[in-house]
Design a protein that fits this description.
By secondary structure, this protein is mainly β. The strands form 8 sheets. It has a 22-stranded antiparallel barrel. Strands 2-3-9-10-7-8 form a 6-stranded mixed β-sheet. A hairpin with an 8-residue loop joins strand 13 and strand 14. The longest helix has 13 residues. The radius of gyration is 26 Å and the shape is globular.
Length: 789
């Protein structure tokens, strides 16, 4: 059966372009939270109970690839489930969202799922200053060593993704995020279907990639409940060097109605991920060794020679320059369990509400084989040790809200509370001088040196109140405010070396970020059936990070004592003015924005990343950003469409960095790190119901990785190709089957994908700071899916 969207022009005038859903996704309807996340003017039809043969696109309508937020009072776009499913299974949804205006997403692996290199920047704000939710559940700041959440790839299998909504300027008042200075991304999971069905899929491809997936939908049970359970295993070699990237994951979702007015939704997720890292590179290394330079995991003897040369001051092997040219190995390990229960209820025809309880636990390690510390002779005697950063998250929270309609007003009230306990430690584990260590496994219980360890508690309290006032049929006003309080506390514990205490080097203490009035106001005016304008203003605050590797607690005790006296939470004021056009063949939007970013906390990395030194933090004042986002979607011929987006961003630091009253870094007027001034995307698509395909070009302007802008990586343009076929036959074997081929980096461009993997520095005139990740070369993947009724 086909997932359908009505082809209609409603009050806001939105037009949803037609395209045909993959047979694999036919039985999946967006969850209620998905429908809430999408623009309210986009009606959604329920899936029909009977599977039909796919029809030509003019005859059969389906969900749009991109909906440009018609009727909304701020810039917003929703990317359909179909757009996500057209990518290689296992691909991060961020990669699909990266074609939207103002969004820059990079990763050094072809699927965008390798977390160490994941980088998303929107209008100059990186992921630590953006909000992320899944079915309304907070995912945290999505930093690599996340202290308050998990990545979307570990929270939800890509096959179970529903529509994803991006709000570039500021998230809605009720978004459960304490750091959404620059916008919010809201992901959704699909609902179980009312019809029994089994979906299976397999993917093979470059770098020995293989992925298997299976999902069982129960169909409607006695009593009206329904559920699905799914599981996938993904295994791939690195595209260069030696190592693997492996993930096992399971999802389950259950929906139970209680009469006509109450519904219970329960969701559970488990994920275990193990991934060997790619080498962080510098411009000088790329120039000398090329993009394929990587960890030497298969050559333990050479790694020991390098470490011995560094520790004894003797000559390095001729193939390397110093101890940081290559490392033996590095890896990331994460195991998560997350779940929620949500109760939706209609108290009256005017009053509706919901309440959600959720929990999340995480155990994680970032492992690095380091030449900077040798294993004691009594424990193995290798000149190398395994250095880990270890994580342990236990968080629980509640979210709730009420919506009341009266006259021309819809009043919304809601709350969010979360209690998060986080533990973090830096430990060293022994290695034997003989033999080769395992390339990737959990290190537990036999560390000989704990450099530091800390426990953190973060309590978040948020309430909001807002109103949507339909002043007249063509004019809508939204306004309201939220209040946010986040209390952070840290307790640094003494480290120890082989049982002997070594003292504490990191700070203990508490911080609080609070603001009782964070207002938002926006208006949408429909000029006529095809044209509308909108404007909005939002003020937001970001809470402090509670971690030893980011935020105020990542500096030295002395540095924290200085900061604590004058530290203020980061704030942003965002203003937008936009225009949208839509008819039956064309939709477009143009948005201009002005952002003031206040009390920016700047972190400067000290030394190379593997050393793990405390960063130097400073309140560097403000950043001012001005820019324009443009997007257009054109159905220019039968079965053919063209999507294009362009973004110009001019984000500049307002102040120099001072230390003891003296300028330590002249960054005033310099561009913010990591964000290109120009981004462009062009996608040509074809879909006749059976054959479909698209080719996407993504352009990124040059990006700086130093605050003084004396070092940057050049611009790049990358092409990706996706093609597929939906079998139309009623034959039992072919019915419900489809196949697709995905080619990433079609023209095999060599380029720098991620900048800032090891942070940013004030200056790098010699190009030796290792904080760059090389982009993957051309890679090809083949997927076949089958749905059983």
């Amino acid at each position: 059966m086909k997932l359908m969207l009505a082809l209609t022009t409603c009050l806001s005038g939105v037009f949803v372009f037609s395209s045909v859903q993959s047979a694999f996704a036919d039985d999946l309807s967006p969850s209620q939270s998905a429908r809430k996340a999408a623009p309210s003017s986009v009606p959604v039809k329920k899936a029909s109970a009977k599977r039909t043969v796919a029809q030509p696109v003019e005859a059969t309508t389906s969900e749009s690839v991109v909906v440009l937020g018609a009727g909304a009072a701020r810039e917003t776009q929703t990317v359909s489930r179909r757009a996500i499913q057209e990518m290689t299974p296992g691909t991060s949804p961020f990669k699909t969202l990266s074609k939207l205006p103002g969004v820059m997403f990079t990763s050094s692996d072809p699927l965008g799922s390798y977390e160490w290199s994941q980088q998303i920047v929107i209008r100059g704000f990186d992921q630590s200053r953006l909000g992320f939710t899944m079915d309304g559940i907070p995912l945290g700041n999505l930093a690599y060593g996340n202290d308050n959440g998990l990545s979307i790839g570990r929270a939800l299998e890509t096959e179970n993704n529903g529509p994803s909504t991006l709000t570039q300027g500021a998230g809605a008042l009720g978004v459960a995020a304490s750091n959404d200075l620059g916008g919010a991304l809201q992901f959704t999971s699909v609902d179980p279907t009312k019809k029994f069905g089994v979906d299976v899929a397999g993917t093979i491809g470059s770098a020995s990639t293989w992925r298997t997936f299976a999902r069982i939908n129960s169909g409607e049970l006695k009593g009206g409940g329904r559920f699905y359970v799914s599981y996938n295993h993904q295994d791939a070699n690195k595209w260069k060097g030696d190592g693997v990237q492996v993930q096992d994951q399971a999802n389950a979702k259950y929906i139970q109605p209680f009469g006509e007015h109450v519904k219970l939704t329960v969701y559970g997720d488990w994920s275990k991920r193990k991934e060997n890292d790619y080498q962080d590179l510098s411009l000088a290394q790329i120039s000398k060794y090329g993009y394929n330079l990587d960890n030497i995991t298969g050559n333990y003897a050479l790694a020991k020679q390098i470490a011995t040369a560094y520790q004894t001051g003797t000559a390095f092997p001729s193939s390397v320059q110093d101890q940081d040219t290559v490392y033996y190995n590095a890896a990331g390990l994460r195991e998560d369990a997350m779940g929620y229960g949500r109760l939706d209820f209609d108290i009256t025809s005017r009053l509706k509400g919901f309440v959600t309880g959720y929990g999340h636990t995480n155990t994680g390690e970032g492992a690095w084989i380091t030449p900077y510390l040798a294993t004691p002779a009594a424990l193995g005697g290798s000149p190398l040790t395994t250095r880990t950063t270890e994580y342990d998250i236990h968080r629980a929270g509640f979210i709730g809200g009420l919506s009341y309609k009266i006259a021309n007003h819809t009043i919304d009230w809601g709350f969010w509370f979360e209690n998060n306990n986080f533990e973090q430690a830096r430990r060293f584990y022994p290695l034997q001088d003989s033999g080769s260590p395992s390339s990737i496994h959990w290190y537990q219980g036999n560390s000989f040196y704990t450099q530091w360890q800390s426990t953190f508690n973060t309590k978040t309290y948020q309430v909001h109140l807002g109103d949507t006032w339909q002043i007249m049929p063509a004019l809508k006003l939204t306004y309201g405010f939220k209040s946010l309080i986040v209390d952070n506390s840290a307790r640094a514990l003494s480290g120890n070396l082989m049982g002997t205490p070594t003292g504490t080097t990191y700070p203990s203490g508490s911080l609080s970020a609070s603001n009782g009035f964070l207002p938002q106001i926006g208006a949408n005016y429909r000029i006529n059936q095809h044209n509308e304008i909108f404007a909005d203003f939002a003020r937001n605050m970001a809470a402090f990070d509670s971690a030893q590797t980011s935020g105020p607690f990542s500096t030295t005790t002395a540095g924290f004592e200085v900061l604590q006296k004058k530290l203020k939470p980061e704030m942003s004021n965002t203003e937008e003015l936009g225009y949208r056009f839509h008819n039956h063949t064309f939709q477009a939007s143009v948005t201009g924005y002005y952002v003031e970013f206040q009390n920016r906390l700047l972190a400067v990395t000290q030394g190379v990343g593997i050393q793990g030194n405390a960063s130097v933090l400073s309140n560097v004042g403000g950043v001012t950003a001005r820019g324009v986002d443009v997007a257009a979607n054109w159905k220019f011929a039968r079965n053919w469409s063209l999507f294009a987006s362009y973004a110009f961003n001019n984000s500049l630091y307002d102040n120099n960095v001072y230390a003891d009253g003296v300028v330590s870094a002249r960054i005033k007027g310099k561009h913010t790190v990591g964000m290109p001034s120009n981004l462009a995307n062009v996608e040509l698509g074809y879909d006749d119901g059976a054959i479909w395909g698209n080719v996407l070009m993504q352009f990124q302007d040059k990006r700086y990785y130093t605050y003084t802008n004396d070092a940057s990586v050049p611009a790049n343009a990358i092409f990706n190709l996706n093609v597929g076929y939906r079998f139309q036959s009623q034959n039992w074997f072919l019915r419900g089957m489809d196949a697709q081929i995905n080619v990433t980096n079609l023209f095999n461009k060599r380029y720098v994908a991620t900048v800032g993997s090891n942070g940013f520095v004030n200056s790098d005139p010699s190009g030796t700071f290792q904080t760059l990740q090389a982009g993957a070369p051309r890679m090809v993947f083949f997927t076949i899916r089958k749905h059983f009724d």
